[in-house]
Amino acid sequence: MNINVVGAKNVLKFAKSCKKVKMLLHVSTAYVCGKTTGILSEKSLVMGETLNKNSYLDMDKERSIIASKFRELRAQNATAKELTIGMKELGLQRARLHGWQNTYSFTKAMGEMILGDLKENVEIVIIRPAVITSTYKEPFPGWIEGVKTVDSFILAYGKGVLKFYYGDPNSKFDAIPGDMVVNTILAAIIAHENQYSQQVVIYHSSSSLNNPLKNSDLMLYAFNYFTKNPWANKDGKMIKVKAPMRPFSSMTSYRKHISTHYLPLLKMLKFVNQVSCHRYEKNYLLMKKKISKAIRLTELYEPYVFFYGSFDEVNAEKLRLAMKEINMDQVLNFDSRCIKWEDYFMNAHIPGAVKYLF
Q: Fatty acyl-CoA reductase C-terminal domain location, by residue (predicted)?
C-alpha cells in the first residue's frame, strides 16, 4: 500500500510541482485485469471500481483497515514473523474481496486509479508489463537481477528439488524480456513528450496475443536444458532430470500429492529428530521449509499459471509504428513476435538464471 499506492500519489504530487514537467510515466502490471479471459484491452481503470462489481473500493477505508490490523497485532505483542504473516493474510483477504487474486495486482490497480483521478493537467502514460523475464539482447542476452517469478520453479527443478508444479500446462505464460519493457518505456517517452491527453494512455508490454507461450512449452525447455546441462551439486555430482515437471491443475490434487509423498517423510523425520535429542533438527527444519515454500509459491503464482486471457496491443502497435516513422524501431525493439522462445529460454534465460544463482 505504501509503495504502490501512496508512493504513486507522492510521485504525482512531486510531478505537479515541477514547472517544466512534460509527462509522468508509471510502470504498473498487466495483471491489474485480474482473472479474466478473452482479449484484454489497454483501457484505464476508474476510481473505486472493483473486479467483482459487487463492492466499492474506498482507499481511505483500506488504509484505515491496514493501520487498525497493524495496531491490533502490535497490541498482541506479535513477533516480527507473526506481524508479517498477519499483514500478508490481510492483504490477500482484501484483494480477493474486491476481485483481485493477490496483493501486488490489487495495490498496482489502486496506484493506477490514484494517478488517473488526481492527474489534472499532467500527461500520464502507464506501461503494463506481463511477467518480466531476462533480457533478449541488451545489455546482453540473459541478464536478470535476482531470481524472479518462474525462475524459482525452473532452478528448483534443475537442482532436483522440485518434480511437479501447480498449473494448467495449456494456459498461457505471458513472458516479456526486460529490455523490451525498457524499450517500450523509452519509446513512450519519445512519443508523448508534450503530447497532452486528457485520458491516461495505456501500453501493454506482453506476448500472449502476438507470440503465445504455454506453460507446457516452458517446462519442456527446462527439461531439455537441464538434460544437456545437468546441475552439479555441492559434491560435484551431476543431477539428472528424468522427465519434465508433472503438472497438477487443481489445488486439491496438488495438496494430495504433497500429503501422500512428502508429509509422511516429514512426520517420520520429526519423530526421529525428537527421539535423538534433536540431532536431525537442521534436516527437519529444512524439509519443513521446502514443503511450506512449495505451497506458498503455488498460491503466489496461481494468477500466472492459470491465465487464459490475451493482452491486446493496439496502442503498443501504434507506438511501434511511430518509432518506425522516425527510424527508431530497430534501436527500440519491443516486438515480441521476433522472439523464438525455445532459443531464448535454452540459450539466454535459463543459462542467465543459473549463472546469477551461482
A: 261-358
